From TrEMBL:
Domain named DEAD-box RNA helicase Q: residues: 253-281
Chain span(s) of sequence motif Q motif: 253-281
Domain Helicase C-terminal: from-to ranges: 495-640
Subunit structure comment from the entry: Found in a mRNP complex, at least composed of TDRD1, TDRD6, TDRD7 and DDX4. Interacts with RANBP9. Interacts with RANBP10. Interacts with PIWIL2 and MAEL. Interacts with BMAL1 and CLOCK. Interacts with Tex19.1 and, probably, Tex19.2. Interacts with RBM46.
Source organism of the structure: Cebus imitator
Name the record gives this protein: RNA helicase
One GO process term, biological-process aspect: meiotic cell cycle
Ranges for domain Helicase ATP-binding: 284-467
Catalysed reactions listed for this entry: ATP + H2O = ADP + phosphate + H(+)
Keyword Metal-binding appears in the UniProt entry: no
Amino acid sequence: MGDEDWEAEINPHMSSYVPIFEKDRYSGENGDNFNRAAASSSEMDDRPRRDHFVKSGFASGRNFGNRDAGESNKRGNTSAMGGFGAGKSFGNRGFSNSRFEDGDSSGFWRESSNDCEDNQTRNRGFSKRGGNELDQDECMQRTGGLFGSRRPALSGTGNGDTSQSRRGSGSGRGGYKGLNEEVITGSGKNSWKSEAEGGESGDTQGPKVTYIPPPPPEDEDSIFAHYQTGINFDKYDTILVEVSGHDAPPAILTFEEANLCQTLSNNIAKAGYTKLTPVQKYSIPIILAGRDLMACAQTGSGKTAAFLLPILAHMMRDGVTASRFKELQEPECIIVAPTRELVNQIYLEARKFSFGTCVRAVVIYGGTQLGHSIRQIVQGCNILCATPGRLMDIIGKEKIGLKQIKYLVLDEADRMLDMGFGPEMKKLISCPGMPSKEQRQTLMFSATFPEEIQRLAAEFLKSNYLFVAVGQVGGACRDVQQTVLQVGQFSKREKLVEILRNIGDERTMVFVETKKKADFIATFLCQEKISTTSIHGDREQREREQALGDFRSGKCPVLVATSVAARGLDIENVQHVINFDLPSTIDEYVHRIGRTGRCGNTGRAISFFDPESDNHLAQPLVKVLSDAQQDVPAWLEEIAFSTYIPGFSGSTRGSVFASVDTRKGKSTLNTAGFSSSQAPNPVDDESWD
Ligand SMILES: Nc1ncnc2c1ncn2[C@@H]1O[C@H](COP(=O)(O)OP(=O)(O)OP(=O)(O)O)[C@@H](O)[C@H]1O
């Protein structure tokens, strides 16, 4: 369903989703970001409608005013709507956090008035589509037009409000599909960025983000909590692995062969790892040998440990000293990933594997108080897990020095190098102090690696980097049973409810194309008495984390998500993925369905294929399905045949996945279709809040 269709449908019914305006939520204490923004923004008129709309369906609790009030309202809504994601604990945390913030202002670090909280979110300016959008958005940065709220008005008609104006050009009809997270612009007072790069504009205008994420549990059981590998874990051994590049060290077959130090080995055992996955067997010795690496392996097959373990082993071997309080920290390792939730997850893995060592991992990401990020860093930082925008902010504020960097990891590397994040990554490697690629080890991991992105990656990697391909590059995980149903846009909701009722309480992620639609579908499911929460880029970080928590805990077994949740998230027991809307790119499809069927467990993915809008995907879908030995519906083959475009490679219609290292020359094609960096006209507004 297109956005227009949806708005036409939802708007007349809005009042029925919108509970009575609860005024007290807008009159909170202590400089809450909404209060500030509301006072000056013409977006105010639309906000209550939208927020209530969101809240009416499922736990929302935007960071408005009095947090306790917000929480109690949320509970009220929750019970009214049949129990969606109340998240009591968040209320409590929010309260204590806000007190912490108060204390903080007189603490050792004081935020300057022009701190640019979450500016990365505001300035998600680099369009993945490049061209006009990039120019438009950069232009808006220069004119300070980006410092609106992250909360768009529902109708998006634009009334002079900065964010709406921005949406009008940047996202209203389709920011780049699938660009999920914060990008772009460091802008602290000491930013090394030039004015033209958008480093300074509007810093003083944006509302501050005050959210401080609750600290993760510290007890050992929680740190090492893990889920069981599935019945197909041993089948990983049958997947073909290809290593290309010169002088690759041999693979190892066991953890013992890696010769890791005792503490690391103990942590691996406590994490429940007894056997290496293929990507680990090949990547660990390569990284231990000091080589640069581009590794591509199916979703859920243990890529995170594949880079964390050898990095930690090196650090231990090199006698990394416990980092201590310093205003400028110089970490040995930076790990970047495209979404906040993913960097947080990587951080938790790093914390787990470094448990009992003197290596300190820190995580920073947008949507949280910048001061909080800085406080985490100055206490000591050996491994920094970060989203790009927040990272550049912190570097700009001279809290992080890059001189000691020995490892630079790009997780979801194809996303990190595409038009969305690529410019930011280039800036990172050319930051003052950043060791050249010859002096550092650069590691890239993903389940998909489009050919053109591989070429871009060469700029980051030493020329003798190794390329590991586990199975087919860009292939779907075979443990996911894929079904494609032909469903027209107006039948989708009915079909969704039918499927969810059959599924019962099993955990299910429902992917939709736009943030608005995520709200709408979540609300709709709530009304159908299906416990649902949602995650997308218009939700406050507090809400996003609460939604994920409610989904993880099973409190809300259905999570409606945009592409922000497509990559990397490792959630136990997700048995189903439903593509209510198909993404525009086949690699996005592969990542989305990879939220189930992880680590040898089986899962199911059902996709609604609407011939009105999804025909461009028919051909690559057929390929992905048949490569993963799935049934291909005859009707899909027919569509694929009728829309067949010979010679995709090199055509303007987009490139394809390389089945091999592109350095081998012209790669063979394994999947026709659009890669993420060359998507067709997108409809998703995910990236442009
Ligand atoms: N050797 C192993 N033994 C048991 N469990 C493992 C092993 N390696 C990884 N895991 C677990 O498998 C799950 C998936 O791992 P991870 O998230 O690193 O996958 P991934 O390949 O990065 O997936 P994605 O492509 O979706 O990002 C995690 O819960 C992780 O702890």
